[in-house]
Fold this sequence. Notes:
The chain is α+β, with helices and mostly antiparallel strands. Helices cover 28% and strands 29% of the residues. The chain is built from five helices and seven strands, in the order βαααβββαβαββ. The relative contact order is 0.18.
Amino acid sequence: MEVRLREVEDGDLPVFFAHMNEPEGVRMAAFTAEDPSDRARFDAHWERVRQNPVGIVRTVVGDGHQVVGHAAVFGPPEEREVTYWIGRRYWGQGVATAALRELLRIAPERPLHARAVADNVASVRVLEKCGFTVSGRERDFANGRGEEVDELLLTLVDHSDHPDHHSDHPDPGD
């Protein structure tokens, strides 16, 4: 699937809301809103995200201009973090890796940080394919699981030397 990033439009938000309410997506992300079905809270969150002048937030668009997810960089310069959410029906097609690679091109500052629940092997693999390395581990409560889980902290210092950086072969897990 061909993937590109573009500015977030109002019409993207219902798709994001649907993605963020997919039970398997919530379980895999783990660190979600306490109540993902609270549309008012979702809308308020996205209003803040879109108004943040230092954040980079993009809609991930696939073939036929379909909205397949979103990707972002947020936080203060010394703690910049990446995040992404791809709709369940697009998993396993290389979308997350392609979207994150494109996001890293438009957000060149380093270091960048990321977090993933330790058992989300596909997301950890996406981050590693893009040059992130595990830099720590924490245990914290995850709303999406209703329990404490292990979380991996990952850091990208410079991805240009990473062996998978220029690979266009999708990983079956992303």
